[in-house]
């Protein structure tokens, strides 16, 4: 019978893992190692999670499942720390106990053993960095965390970060479905690199080659041309960029929106901005515990925003930066340091961590960006910023095939490669605009964290593909 | 100024596109082609969508945006068909009208022109196939539809299919979030092909190679080991399988669940089955219009299910099939025809289109499947079926590194390649189970459609990578 040898072996291992109880151990009937749970039985016994132990259960006799975290042993479960010195940290236990100040009744069984040596200590992993520096106590560096992500994700900080990230997705969708948007699923394997072929990953596709989509934009736009009117999607986005910065990943999660409008792309900008505001408000209301937990390890100012969202035009931003001593041409894009400085200036002047920068120079935006009809050097495009870093880039798209062809030629793009894209607009296309939001960046900046790898469960960058 | 030449050109084209109005055209001030909408203005004028025109608006003067579908011109907007014979089908219009039986007031402007010849006719695209055969009237074949997906997606049938699909995702998440699950995001680019390397797409990753994930399973399991307890994700899944069938795609959307349990994997099976039931009920309640619309073109019996879900064990299914004349060994897997036959037999006997088949032979399941402790030839694994086709495959997973190693060796898998996977369980892992659901299959089978390409917006198979 498969598994028998392994289980025997394992039980032996378990016995060895426990130190021999003292000869005068009065409790030896009350603990042990259970056989591997292979769904042998369906006992009636209710099993409570440690986190669900509340005052209401005082004086009840309950069975509890918990993991041994010496770092968490305090208050009413201090006894665990004492009794279980023979059990290695990170094992999983079933415990029968009466929750009272003087515990007089308990049974404890191991259901999953951990290796005796952990590659990182949870105590160290949740220590604020400033403590570490001041007191010389250990913290855990990022590569050690990421190499041992399963353990690092057990910290209360990681749990809070990713529960809040789940909340961002939920609020994004709730808000958009409420607004009448339809969720779409767009393909990630594509036949041609739509924006000219730079920074794209190549896939072997049977006997030929394909590419990984750098964004769902073309497909969102096709849905608009197919009269879906308002669409969104959440999915992976791939960028073969050799950027080793705090905010670039080669694979990240895009929250994407596209919407037909009646007269002016600001109709779309307002919907996107309101969606962000609903996310910020929802996080404040529903995820206060998570926000507080993260701020214990990574202290930061609460995230501030205005309602309605502040919208600045590019020339206004330029003037603020120039006044602060930055030298820039009218048609230059913002550098990362300029973006951060602008964030600080906007915060001082308007007291908000979130704003829209509208009307970028046409020259710095992609070929499909709609030119501003009133100013030849300007475009109907916008970025959105959180704490001075870009989290969304968007625009009114050119929906006329002839103008699109002209703009592509102006950018020196091979028309043959984007033929399918241009052809999508030949059978009647409504004016539309949209944008793509980086989920990991939103999570990072909302919580005031400093590296996007803290907000990607299993980050991918030019140097990291594991775990 | 960019765009000027193109716009001029385009307006000329638009003028040519319209047939010359007759000399005695009394309404010539009331129609025309508007300049390209580049967000020039923000008029106060409210613009209603055609689908939102209701009786409440009778006798009001409203501006409407609509697309010219001659196929849809009936009842109160029959006049469009007559007046607009000079405008090509699929243009987008702004129309001022008073909704009354005798329309006496209107203005009509084109805001987006379509090419005069459409590659497929919407009338043909929504015709039930049986009509086509009986009456000799045209229908549209699948490749023509998929080659011109933007137009095909405009049919009321396609709109209904994909709005319902959006609803499936929404109901799946709503139910799981309600049950305390956390949404996770798992990487699609992975460093090693976890299940041995068959059917996996290779990606060029900077100077080395990587792979596209065949499922998020490893990452879901790592989240369970990291104490997230109950997780789900929705995302693309890649299979480099050269299968050209009605139900295989090389890229599809997986709805994935993984959950720690207390004593028995049926705790998880029950949660998954209940999630499916909540989806079926939600679709019935919220998407009745869509279901009716699709059934006009593709007639089918309403989807039936039981509450709680029927769970059969493999030997029971085997007995039913043998009684129906199928020859099968005790440890054989079900063939596709056997699955379909079983679906019919179960429907006859239990009157349900949805059921669980539990306790598959160990020999036909992957190495990480937990063996049944009471029967060496059986495993703690299950499939779920809709209308006789598999939509979910799942199991209790082996959470003990030693047993996992033994099982992998039994399957002849190179341990070096799955080291990271096995190591995930070395620091305490709770017993857990899960499964993956194919979104396109659920949509197809719920609606009684016959090809998964009808329920994938932009399907990918060995022969199709476009659009």
From TrEMBL, chains A, B:
Transmembrane segments: none annotated. InterPro entries: Aa-tRNA-synt_II (IPR004364), aa-tRNA-synth_II (IPR006195), aa-tRNA-synth_II/BPL/LPL (IPR045864), Asp-tRNA_synthase_2 (IPR004523), Asp/Asn-tRNA-synth_IIb (IPR002312), NA-bd_OB-fold (IPR012340). Keywords: Aminoacyl-tRNA synthetase, ATP-binding, Cytoplasm, Ligase, Nucleotide-binding, Protein biosynthesis. One of its GO terms (molecular function) is ATP binding. HAMAP family: Asp_tRNA_synth_type2. Homodimer. Part of a multisubunit complex that groups tRNA ligases for Arg (RARS1), Asp (DARS1), Gln (QARS1), Ile (IARS1), Leu (LARS1), Lys (KARS1), Met (MARS1) the bifunctional ligase for Glu and Pro (EPRS1) and the auxiliary subunits AIMP1/p43, AIMP2/p38 and EEF1E1/p18. Its EC number is 6.1.1.12. Belongs to the class-II aminoacyl-tRNA synthetase family. Type 2 subfamily. One of its GO terms (biological process) is aspartyl-tRNA aminoacylation. Catalyzes the specific attachment of an amino acid to its cognate tRNA in a 2 step reaction: the amino acid (AA) is first activated by ATP to form AA-AMP and then transferred to the acceptor end of the tRNA. It is an enzyme of class 6 (ligase). NCBIfam families: aspS_nondisc (TIGR00458), PRK05159.1 (NF003483). It holds the Pfam family tRNA-synt_2. Residues 8-17 have a biased composition (Basic and acidic residues). It comes from Anolis carolinensis. It catalyses: tRNA(Asp) + L-aspartate + ATP = L-aspartyl-tRNA(Asp) + AMP + diphosphate. It is found in: Cytoplasm. GO terms for cellular component: cytoplasm. Residues 1-26 are annotated as: Disordered. This is Aspartate--tRNA ligase, cytoplasmic.
């Amino acid at each position: 019978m498969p598994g028998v040898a392994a289980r025997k072996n394992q039980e032996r291992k378990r016995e060895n893992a426990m130190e021999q109880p003292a000869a005068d151990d009065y409790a030896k009937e009350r603990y042990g190692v259970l056989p591997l749970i292979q769904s042998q039985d369906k006992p009636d016994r209710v099993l409570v999670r440690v986190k669900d132990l509340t005052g209401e259960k005082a004086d009840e006799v309950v069975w509890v499942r918990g993991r041994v975290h010496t770092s968490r042993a305090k208050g009413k479960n201090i006894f665990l720390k004492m009794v279980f010195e023979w059990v290695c940290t990170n094992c999983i236990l079933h415990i029968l106990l009466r929750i009272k100040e003087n515990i007089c009744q308990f049974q404890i069984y191991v259901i999953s053993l951990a290796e005796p040596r952990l590659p990182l200590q949870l105590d160290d992993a949740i220590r604020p960095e400033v403590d570490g520096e001041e007191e010389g106590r250990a913290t855990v560096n990022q590569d050690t965390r990421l190499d041992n992500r399963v353990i690092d994700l057990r910290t209360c900080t990681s749990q809070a970060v990713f529960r809040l990230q789940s909340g961002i997705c939920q609020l994004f969708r709730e808000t958009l479905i409420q607004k009448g948007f339809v969720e779409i699923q767009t393909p990630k394997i594509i036949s041609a690199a739509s924006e000219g072929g730079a920074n794209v990953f190549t896939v072997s596709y049977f006997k030929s080659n394909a590419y990984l989509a750098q964004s769902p934009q073309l497909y969102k736009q096709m849905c608009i041309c197919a009269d879906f009117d308002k669409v969104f999607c959440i999915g992976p986005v791939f960028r073969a960029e050799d950027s080793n910065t705090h905010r670039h990943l080669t694979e990240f999660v895009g929250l994407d929106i596209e919407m037909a409008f009646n007269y002016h792309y600001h109709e779309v900008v307002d919907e996107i901005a309101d969606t962000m505001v609903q996310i910020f408000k929802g996080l404040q209301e529903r995820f206060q515990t998570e926000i507080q937990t993260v701020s214990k390890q990574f202290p930061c100012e609460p995230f501030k925003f205005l309602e309605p969202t502040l919208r600045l035009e590019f020339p206004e931003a330029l003037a603020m930066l120039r006044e602060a001593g930055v030298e820039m041409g009218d048609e230059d894009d913002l550098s990362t340091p300029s973006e951060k400085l602008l964030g600080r200036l906007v915060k001082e002047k308007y007291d908000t961590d979130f704003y829209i920068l509208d009307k970028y120079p046409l020259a710095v935006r992609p070929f499909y960006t709609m030119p501003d009809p009133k100013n030849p050097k300007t475009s109907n495009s916008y970025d959105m910023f959180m704490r001075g870093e870009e989290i969304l880039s968007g625009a009114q798209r050119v929906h006329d095939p002839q103008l699109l062809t002209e703009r592509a030629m102006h950018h020196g793009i091979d028309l043959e490669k984007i033929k399918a894209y241009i052809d999508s607009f030949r059978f009647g296309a409504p004016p539309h605009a949209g944008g793509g939001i980086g989920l990991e960046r939103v999570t990072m900046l909302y919580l005031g964290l400093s590296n996007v790898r803290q907000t990607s469960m299993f980050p991918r960058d030019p140097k990291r593909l594991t775990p």
